[in-house]
Each structure stands twice: as C-alpha cells, then as structure tokens.
Amino acid sequence: MLLLNHTTVVAQEPKVLVYSDHEPLGGMRTRFLKDVLFPAIEKESNGRLKIDDHWNGELAIAYDARGAVAAGEVVDISTVVPEYSANEMPLHQIFKGFPMGPTGDGQIEFFKRVYAEIPAFAEEMTENNLVTLYFGTGYPVAFYSTKPLGSLNEVSGGRWRTASFWHQDFLTNVGATPVTMHWGPEVPAALQAGTIDGLMVNVDSGYMLKVHEVAPNILASKDLWLGHVYLLAMNKTTWDGLAQDDRDAIRRAAESAYTTLGSVMDNSFDAQIQELQDAGATVRVLDKAEIEPWVAATRYQEAQDAWVRSQQSKGNESVDPALKAVRSIMRDIMD
Questions:
Q1: Same domain for 289 and 330?
Q2: The whole model's pTM is what?
Q3: Mean pLDDT score of the chain
Q4: 265, 271, 258: which is closest to 232 by C-alpha?
Q5: What's residue 167's pLDDT?
Q6: Beta carbons of 45 and 126 less than 8 angstroms apart
Q7: Is 93 exposed, middle or buried (0-12, 13-18, 19+ CB in 10 A)?
Q8: Is residue 207 a part of any domain in this protein?
Q9: Percentage above 70 pLDDT, the chain
Q10: Are strands 130-137 and 229-235 parallel, antiparallel or unpaired?
Q11: How far apart are CA 63 and CA 68, in angstroms?
Q12: Does the N terminus or the C terminus of the chain have fewer Cβ atoms within 10 A?
C-alpha cells in the first residue's frame, strides 16, 4: 500500500494594527496617510501588517491621542500632536519657536535630521512609551484680517487670535495684542463683532472655519513656518513585539512616503491659495524678503531663551542643548 503524505499550508493571518486620528479623513495630511503611507506599509510587509484606520476622533480626540496610544489598550498607532501634550513632550515644543523655516523637501530634511542627530527627541518619545514611525507636517502660517493688510508690518497695533504660546510672544514683540479663545464659531463671531482684528493660524484651518468670509484680507507664504509636526507614533510595547522584518518594512514605507511628501505639501499650498481666491478672498503670497523684517521684529531667539529658562526652572535641563542643536540644523537647512 502506498501512503501519500499530504501537507496543508495555512496562510498566516495579517497582524492588524489599530490606527486612530483626531481629524476627519479628507485633508492633505489624512489623505496622504490613507492613500500613500498605509498601503506602503502593507506592501512592504508583504501583507503581514494591516492598518485598521479610524478617523475624526472615533477612538481618541486630539488631546487624548498621546495617552491612548501610550496605553496601547485600544490603539496601536496614532497621530500625536506634541502641542497638546506640552508637559509630557517639552522638547517637541521647540519646533514652533521659529517664525520662518524650510519648505517642501527642506522641511522633510529638517525633521529627519533632528530625529537622526539629536537623541533627546527619541528619548522623550521612549519616556512616553512611544516610537515615532513617521512625521507629517501641516500648512504654513497665514494672517487673516478684517481690514486690508498690505504687509506684515501692519500686524502691529491689532488684536490677533492665536493658540500658540510662541506666536503670542511673537505678536507681543511686534507690537500687537495676542488674544486666546476657543477654536470654533466664536472666532468668526469675534472677527465680525470687531473684538479681534485678525487671526494668525495655519492657512487651511482658517479656510475650514470659513474665517475668510469675515476676514477676507490674507497674507500667506510657504516660508511662514508653523513647525506643527504630526507624529505618527506607535505604542513602544507593540513596536518591540513586532518581528524585525515588520519593523524594517514600516521604516521602508516611511522613507518611500517622504520622497513625495514635499511636493505634495507645496502643491497643496498652491491649491489652498486658489480655493481662498475662488471664494472671494484677497490673498497676497509674500516672498522671503518681505518676511525677513517680520522675523527680526518677533525677536524669536529672545522668546526661545526665555522659554529655556522657564523649563530649566522646572528641572528640564535637556531643553538648552536640544534647542542649540535644533538651531544649528535650522541654520544649515536655511543657508
């Protein structure tokens, strides 16, 4: 009797990684993740990894994102905005402390160098039980004004809403009055009532809130650095539990995505300006020479030094060497 030995091959089920994002799917950043990065992760891992994506705060709102992914109970990966976790991520606040910075591929190079050359940033992530997989950036700053705005010099004397503590310092130093208020319909209402004169914010956020309908005079530029980094962070315990092949696949996917991100950001900025103009806004795009006097007037380095002293008073001694290293990289990129 001839016995045949049958071997059954069972396909391995992919490892599902749950992703959470506080924003709805549809903007430049979220579409890039959905359409470019996540498929690249699945492709590079040969299907061993699958992203189960959730949007619009379904699993965690913006201010809870860091804690949710650090806990790792429901969320494996999340977009973390360091500004919303200033106490837990003080070093990551440094990025917004510059009023002008690189654009497009230069912006990608800047952040890649920071994370590659300054170990303190990765250490801060580790302290939060996080690993950075990839970083995304947002649109640059724009100034929305209820009155005609010929240049950034005319920001002086006005009352401008901003959320960033850095931008509050910049506005104060140029002779304007910074105003803080909840982000929502209160902002266009205050503009319409005349209690504030304008808004200093990333250009797309102003558009989405329809601020241009009541403050249609806009100054914008790719060079008006926002420094608002969106960290795609994974729970460190989950990361450590992945096979080396899968960790390598994620790294390859990120590097592949970076090759197109710069041009996507530049093209998206141009499209956003066109949308504002089509909606009836008066938009002037400033060149670098027009921005340089504003940069000098903000006295941003004084603001940075004051921030370092305040952090040192809390025992955060790592901020001074980290800031100096970031300044050095910024100079290299901008020269």
A1: yes
A2: 0.90
A3: 94
A4: 258
A5: 96
A6: no
A7: buried
A8: yes
A9: 97
A10: antiparallel
A11: 10
A12: N
Cβ pair 229, 160 in contact under 8 A? no
Tell me the one-letter amino acid at 26.
G
Domain extent for 75:
15-85+100-138+228-270
Q: CB burial class (10 A; 0-12, 13-18, 19+) of residue 23?
A: middle
Within-domain flag for 10: no
Q: What is the pLDDT of residue 2?
A: 46
Q: For tokens 């724009």, what's the residue?
A: 142
Cα separations in angstroms, 200 against 106, 164, 310 = 23, 9, 24
- Sheet of 49-54, strand order: 49-54, 15-20, 77-80, 229-235, 130-137
Is the residue at 1 inside a domain?
no
pLDDT exceeds cutoff 50 at 3: no
Read off the pLDDT of residues 155-209 as tens digits, 9 standing for 90 and up: 999 999 998 999 999 999 999 999 999 889 999 999 999 999 999 999 999 998 9
Specify the number of domains making up the chain.
Answer: 2
23 and 62 within one domain: yes
